[in-house]
Amino acid sequence: MRIISGQFKGRKLQAPKHLPVRPTTDMAKEALFNILNNTYYFDELSVLDLFAGTGNISFEFASRGTTQITAVDAHYGCIKFINQTAESFGMNIHTVKSDVFKFLTQSHGKHTIIFADPPYDFPQESFNKIPQLVFENDLLEDNGYVIVEHSKHTNLSALENFSHAKNYGGCVFSFFEK
Which of 35, 45, 73, 152 has the maximal Cβ count within 10 Å? Predict the structure, then answer.
């Protein structure tokens, strides 16, 4: 995986092989960030990266100038890799080792972008729970998006606050807003 744009453009990141992750493909990530680039100034964002895994999405935001980034993952190895990589690049990424659903029920801060990349084999109820908890706990700023990455076999369009979806190969980004 690589950083697509910004200060660290072209830097390749090699995560340890033993991490239980499926990083967002470069093609899908580039398409997502092109959408966001037309809507936001990255240096003004507050980002919450759920199921952060390798930190791929967090690093892309940081490379583009975002300084308020929180990455949440339950796996110690993922958090360790994100911390080490962020430190080596001088990036300001706050990490939290936690179950995402527990974090969402206990969190109090608001974010402009809440990105979630859960395992593609999650049950439908678990996917549904992500935007539900965000809106129940008022974690999204008024002009923000909740973006859930999932496979084309999962459909989130019937959920409350669903806005639209973008398909990139086998990857789908579902957008939710107030």
Answer: 73
- Asked whether residue 6 is assigned to any structural domain, the reply reads no
Q: Does residue 126 lie in a domain region?
A: no
Q: How far apart are CA 178 and CA 164, in angstroms?
A: 13
* Tens-digit pLDDT profile for residues 110-140: 999 999 999 999 999 999 999 999 999 999 9
Is 55 part of a structural domain of the chain? yes
d(CA 41, CA 142) in angstroms, rounded, equals: 15
For 101-139, b where at least 16 C-beta lie within 10 A, e where not — what string? eebbeebeeebbbbbbbbebebeeeebbbbbbbbbeeeb
44-102 confidence digits (pLDDT tens):
999 999 999 999 999 999 999 999 999 999 999 999 999 999 999 999 999 999 999 99
pTM of the model: 0.95
